Amino acid sequence: MDMSFDFQPVYPYHDLLIELGQVEMAIDGLSGREDNERGVLQPDLESRMQSLLDALDHLSV
Fold this sequence. Notes:
The structure is a single chain. The chain has about 60 residues and is mostly helical. The protein has two helices and no strands. The radius of gyration is 16 Å and the shape is elongated.
């Protein structure tokens, strides 16, 4: 019986989910920042989140 599994297609999906979680945590952590700092960081984080979501949508799993 062949017990070899090909996990290669799963890695990109898993990596994207991890990064998405990190971006979500960073966005949640913005509440502890000054208003001007939050104003600079939030658009970049939201843009990165959208890019990750788009990548997940286009990834075939």
